[in-house]
């Protein structure tokens, strides 16, 4: 991405996987904050008996998702967790794995505001139990022309939106990420306006493919991948998938989004994966599949990242070169 650094950063050793994945003790310490943010009656309405997080573990109980991409080799967990963009924790790909350990993922609430019947606050543990968690394997494509195949865990964002009672005037959904300059002191390395903001048109947000995501590879999200909750929009470039979400805002106008604000000529609001529209600095015709042997990495980029059947109709009649 186009990032102006405020200073140069030295690369150092990558943290071993166990150091950041084993948050068992932390999770144990956080037990009990559960339903605090939701009224008990509201919670009873929302929480189904699906036991999403297995006791005393970072493991998640999942059912296989129907909306899944099959037949492609999964990207190793090591790559998914050490090749990240999470600029709050630094500008280099290895920085989030090194620096995101201090992200406080419990207690955690997601506020719902804007064009809704009534503003709400959801506790993360209530959200985890709202619907059965599905494992869905999606291609994930970054505008920097690399891609991965990831077994995400979550449920359709539409299931959550239904609980939010948006008003008919809600035309877009905006996602705001956690921001605390003390926890995310590396955020000063770039000139991004914080908090990180992304948005979707309402029909895009309601498309069943759009995933409210809590985990990957059967476990809770590692911090550097957007714990404890993010969205994943598999037919759009990765930057549309905001991490570590604390606010969901329903709005009547297209919301400001981080990269569009930074460089509107480079990052459009829609950002659908489109091999015919090159980014000024990266051709979008092909991509490098991370984690495969070198000779097998280069792949042709597919329109809508291969999800045309499910999403193309939402853009019928739109000039996708103009609305990139
Ligand atoms: N969300 C926040 N809060 N901060 C970020 O810097 N980076 C975006 C997106 N979501 C980003 C974010 C970009 S540019 C990409 S490509 C994806 O997250 C990367 O997700 P990954 O690191 O899990 O692959």
Write a brief structural summary.
The protein is α+β, with helices and mostly antiparallel strands and 324 residues long. The protein has helices spanning 17-21, 24-30, 40-46, 77-80, 95-99, 124-128, 157-164, 202-206, 258-262, 308-311, and strands at residues 62-64, 109-114, 120-123, 133-141, 146-156, 172-177, 197-201, 211-216, 219-220, 230-232, 245-251, 286-289, 298-300. Strands 1, 4, 5, 8, 9, 10, 12 and 13 form an eight-stranded mixed beta sheet that branches.
CATH class category name: Alpha Beta
User: How many β-strand runs?
Assistant: 13
Q: Which stretches are poorly predicted, pLDDT < 50 over at least 5 residues?
A: 7-51
What small molecules accompany the polymer chains?
ligand MTE
Number of domains: 1
H/E topology pattern: HHHEHHEEHEEHEEHEEEEHEEH
What is the strand content?
15-25%
**Alpha plus pi helix count:** 10
Could you say what the CATH architecture is? Alpha-Beta Complex
Task: Map the helices and strands.
Layout: H1 17-21, H2 24-30, H3 40-46, E1 62-64, H4 77-80, H5 95-99, E2 109-114, E3 120-123, H6 124-128, E4 133-141, E5 146-156, H7 157-164, E6 172-177, E7 197-201, H8 202-206, E8 211-216, E9 219-220, E10 230-232, E11 245-251, H9 258-262, E12 286-289, E13 298-300, H10 308-311
Parallel strand pairs: 1-4, 2-11, 5-12
Antiparallel strand pairs: 2-3, 4-5, 5-8, 6-7, 6-11, 8-9, 8-10, 12-13
The protein binds ligand MTE.
